[in-house]
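Supplementary notes for students who missed Thursday's class. We covered one full example, reproduced here. Read the sequence, then the structure, then the short commentary at the end.
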Amino acid sequence: MQLYPAIDLKDGKCVRLKQGEFNRITVYSDEPYRIARYFEENGATFIHLVDLDGALKGRAVNENAIRKIVGSVTIPCELGGGIRTIEDIERVLSYGVYRVIIGTKAVSDPEFVREAIERFGAGRIVVGVDAKDGMVAVEGWEQVSDKTAVALCSAMKEIGVKHIIYTDISKDGMLCGPNIEMTKKLTDETGLDVIASGGVSSMEDLQALASAGIKGAIIGKAIYEKRVDIAEAVKAFPVFESSVPFSDFKLDGNGLIPVVVQEEDTGQVLMVAYMNEQAYNMTVETGRMTYYSRSRRELWIKGLTSGHFQYVSSLMLDCDNDTILAKVRQAGAACHTGAHSCFFKELAGR
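Structure (token representation):
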């Protein structure tokens, strides 16, 4: 299960609201980028960001804080709040944010979501479904629409959405346990990657979500109130677990296995590299593609110097156990030349 420690931003500060009400606010840090670093240092592999001011005003407000957060960590971040146009998405992605969350606009203009997916890929677009009593709320949770959460999720699936963040507003910031029943219902009925948000208060809540087959959980106040230790949680709920031990792989004479790297969204083959056992274990543990450099004779985390990280979506082994197929979410270019894929020299074709 993917864990998403959360940073909610208001006036450039890290805060938490209760049930989405702006007059029920607690400030946890004046330097949210330090919180992001803390999350990464303790094993987090994804960060959830919300521009609360942006959600209310319908435009980006905490841009400086967001840029500083993204520039302070090497793990991917997702951002929601005030994203209403294609230009908004382009701008947010230019900060280094990996994927954006569309909420209000998904309700008022579903075709906008379709256009965003066609332009940026389904992996970069998440739809936020925030509900009060099962009905979707919009405009920073200030208004309730006439759409049910189930109906909206089903409509988004038809458009091509793969990721949903479901928030039960009555649970948000209350430390009273997530709405597992509704989150599971959405997961089972749509088959989408539904991420639970709101109410997580303990490791027991996370275990209940994982046992229900829910793919992800956002944790906010429980971390800040020290009810959940992020390092402990990451270890308890790994994103990936290897089903085949490395000892079962068929390696070359140097103890390496080749890895064909494919972009999840497009299916494009990006590159070929090699792993030894340590590189493979690090990839599984961190969710970032790590290889063994045959020329330098050392491990290398893809993107550590360039910022063009590869985040694991899945790892598959071929029928002979001698090649790995890695499906990844690619940030930036895969090739050292600056090309998106290393395979750009045409030799033959029609």
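Commentary. The chain has a mean pLDDT of 92. The chain has twelve helices and 18 strands. If anything here is unclear, bring it to office hours.
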